[in-house]
Amino acid sequence: AVKEMKQGGYGYHIIWKNIDRLFTPENVRWIQQQLSNPS
């Protein structure tokens, strides 16, 4: 997904240079949990 965001024509901007660190497997699991069980 990160490769698609960076190279897929979605208007990737250098301001998101830390995107690789944001979407670690651990963070993705946390995001999925939050989306399936919002509080």
Largest sheet: none
Radius of gyration: 12 Å
Cα separation of the termini = 26 Å
- What is the count of structural domains? 1
In terms of structural class, how would the helical and strand content be classed? mainly alpha
Q: Give the count of helical stretches.
A: 3
Q: Which spans have pLDDT < 50 for at least 5 consecutive residues?
A: none
What are the secondary-structure elements, in order, as H or E?
Answer: HHH
Number of strands: 0
Could you state the oligomeric state of the chains shown? Answer: single chain
Per DSSP, what share of the residues sits in E-state strands of 2 or more residues? under 5%
Roughly what percent helix?
55-70%
- Using the alpha-carbon principal axes, give the shape: elongated
Would you kindly provide a written description of the structure presented here, covering whatever features stand out?
The protein is 56% helix and 0% strand. It has 39 residues and is mainly α. The model has no long low-confidence stretch (mean pLDDT 85).
Please give a handful of descriptors for the protein shown:
single chain; 56% helix
